[in-house]
Amino acid sequence: MTTQSYGNFISGRRVSAGSGLFEATNPTTGAVWGTFTDSRIEDVDAAVSSAHTAFTGDWGRVSASERGRLMLRWGDLILANAERLARIETGQNGKLLSEMLAQVRVVPEWLAYYGGLADKIEGSVIPLKQTSVLNYTLKEPLGVIAVIVPWNSPLLLAIMAIAPALSAGNAIVLKPSEVTSASAIEIAALAIEAGFPAGVINVVTGAREAGAALVEHPLVAKISFAGGEEAGRAIAARAGQRLVGCTLELGGKSPNIVFDDADLDLAEAGVLGGIFAAAGQSCVAGSRAYIQRGTYDRLVDRLVSRASKIRIGDPLEAGTQMGPLASTAQLRKTIDMVARAKSDGADVLGGGGQPSIAGYEGGFFFEPTILGGAAADSFIMQNEVFGPVLCVTPFDDEDEIVEAANATRFGLAAGVWTNDLRRAHRMARAIKAGTVWINTYRALTYNSPFGGYKNSGQGRLNGVDAVNAFLQTKSVWCELGTAVNDPFVIRA
């Protein structure tokens, strides 16, 4: 297998590796496939300085309408390269090619939506009692935005932050996960092809040192981060020291709740897809399934049977339903958390081990796993696995399940399966989560806000309001009259 080499992408061009390198591994085979720049402080400074120069120069002079047109052209180029980009994504993180292709193909929709909003960012004229004074507001970009994304949906999560930030007129430094760096560099090159000025979109690769340098850089005006809870907490603390803002999309321990009156065929598919799609490597994974007691045994039997038939293997093959975990670290974490759950009293109802896949013996595979009997306060029920591990628990009534669903520090998403319309909307109000799906799961789009409650994050991506998160408001006062006012009294 040929090893590919990638440098950073700064000032509109690929930059050769600097002070260090790291290797990327294909999780399906376990083989090294690429080398990347392990960026240091000086590399990050070059990227941020490039973005700042673009923001104060060429990019700052581009009209809002032209910003929108550039975003649309970029989306068209990404769509034209969707197959190539999706294969890169699958080679990086082991997710199904069909899943990654679907994600890449919707990226242009985000760019079209926010490109269309670029010339609709407007200030206001404020009516004052002093009729001789004109007071109006301007909506202005913040400057350089640091976008830090994880490895599970690298392009989609990057564009969810980049698109509104660009629409508002900011410049970008993107730091992808060290697991999935290649696709970020490829789309940055496509942005130059689309006509973006050099420096508007930069990419630095690397691990913690690069991320820390980016967060702490004095020219970075805001951080948009998607990833784990502890990393988000550290980033927010560092940003707070500099008094800059953060948008944080963090982890989850999402409940997927099935009532006795639910359509069991739909619920079975929704619970399975909620946790085993993407091998559980999703921030919204429905890793806690609560099933009303009258349906519990029947549905659990169906879930265990169906999970045992999931086709595990090469994510590039059309018949594969679940690929590997993205890294050895993620595989080890999953193994350790299942072992701890068993020692804490949980029963393995299905899966729980590492399958042997012919031809892919070095891959990071783990079986779809279903656990029963886990205590509500156990480690497995309170912490994110980010792997294909489902905990099933029976419940009796609505009040009980609301309390159980909310008994976690997370609040990113939830699913409710019922044919009772009143109950569905009562549950949607009662569950403390940023997204509640009713009789569906894992639905996402560019114009519907997405984000978390509690430790699942702060701020929202997607929707009109996301643009405002990357803007600041300036109030302008203009006296039109000639009367001399008392200089020692405030005008209010």
Automatic annotation (TrEMBL):
Gene3D superfamilies with a match to the protein in the record: Aldehyde Dehydrogenase, Chain A, domain 1, Aldehyde Dehydrogenase, Chain A, domain 2
Xref: PROSITE patterns: ALDEHYDE_DEHYDR_CYS, ALDEHYDE_DEHYDR_GLU
Sequence ranges assigned to domain Aldehyde dehydrogenase in this UniProt record: 20-476
Keywords attached to this entry: Oxidation, Oxidoreductase
Active site: E249
InterPro entries: Ald_DH/histidinol_DH (IPR016161), Ald_DH_C (IPR016163), Ald_DH_CS_CYS (IPR016160), Ald_DH_CS_GLU (IPR029510), Ald_DH_N (IPR016162), Aldehyde_DH_dom (IPR015590)
Top-rank taxon: Bacteria
Keyword Transferase: no
GO molecular function, one term: oxidoreductase activity, acting on the aldehyde or oxo group of donors, NAD or NADP as acceptor
Family: Belongs to the aldehyde dehydrogenase family.
Listed name of the protein: Aldehyde dehydrogenase (NAD+)
